[in-house]
Write a structure and sequence with these properties.
The protein has 249 residues and is of the alpha/beta class. The protein folds into two domains: 124 residues, Rossmann fold, CATH 3.40.50; 97 residues, Arc Repressor Mutant, subunit A. Strands 2-1-3-6-7 form a five-stranded parallel beta sheet, sandwiched between helices. Helix 4 links the parallel strand 6 and strand 7. The protein is elongated.
Length: 249
């Protein structure tokens, strides 16, 4: 029986990762969720599932009981400490899959057999539950606005600075953890699957580009601060606050 499309409220619609190594199942889930109005990203391997799940670019992860041979509870253990993304595991594994997945950090488990209408309803329920922690769509600063939906920075004045995909991923990761240091490795894993010296050097380049677009004085940033020997943090402060004298490193 086909789903009837409805106009759902904003809290019922989100950015979803569908993780499955089975092309037919993945296609069915993606079509159902896109029909519901969600923005869907696919993950085929366990590594892709962890990368997307930890990227802070999605609201919910919907995955099979095993992805690329890796059980869901193992993926949950890798993802949950890094992010508050909603996680739904689809049934089909052993009798202990539900208990193991929920204990490892999953928000919901859908036992088999299940239909697409039930999956869609469970997705909406989780999105409503986490709607308060999905973060703002805009960050208003002293002389500019970070538009997270349009992926651009407006201001000062009529100036508009568009963010590249990598710049947006790094800035979004920092903004969703305000006033908390984010390590070089964590930020690099947001953009690249494997972390090496080359990626860390590129991360410094990305941060410098972000500062040129975001900071009134990129040489003395007030928003993207360097945490020496650790990484960076996004300082969320009142617009009237004085900028700290942090050198651009």
């Amino acid at each position: 029986m086909p789903l009837k499309r409805r106009n759902y409220p904003p809290e019922d619609v989100g950015r979803i990762i569908v993780a499955s190594s089975i092309p037919e199942k993945r296609k069915e889930l993606v079509q159902t969720l896109e029909f519901e109005g969600h923005d869907v990203t696919e993950a085929v391997t366990a590594a892709q599932t962890i990368q997307e799940g930890c990227s802070d670019l999605h609201d919910l992860l919907l995955m099979e009981s095993s992805v690329d041979g890796v059980p869901a509870h193992s993926l949950c253990r890798a993802i949950r400490p890094e992010t508050r993304v909603g996680i739904i595991v689809l049934g089909g594994g052993s009798a202990t899959t539900a208990v193991d997945s929920l204990n490892a950090g999953a928000d919901d488990y859908v036992p088999a057999p299940f239909g697409m209408p039930e999956v869609a309803a469970r997705v909406r329920a989780i999105l409503r539950r986490i709607s308060g922690r999905r973060g703002p769509k805009q960050i208003v600063l002293q002389d500019r606005v970070i538009d997270l939906e349009a992926r651009r920075i407006r201001g000062p004045g009529d100036r508009v600075s568009r963010l590249t995909p990598k710049e947006f991923m790094v800035l979004h990761s920092l903004i969703t953890h305000p006033n908390q240091p984010r390590t070089h490795q964590t930020l690099a894993q947001t953009v690249w699957r494997n972390v090496g010296r080359g990626e860390l050097e590129c991360m410094r380049t990305i941060v410098n580009r972000l500062r040129r677009k975001l900071e009134p004085d990129p040489q003395h940033p007030r928003y993207i601060l360097t945490e020496h020997s650790v990484g960076y943090q996004f300082r969320l402060q009142s617009p009237a606050a004085e900028p700290p004298a942090t050198p651009n490193v």
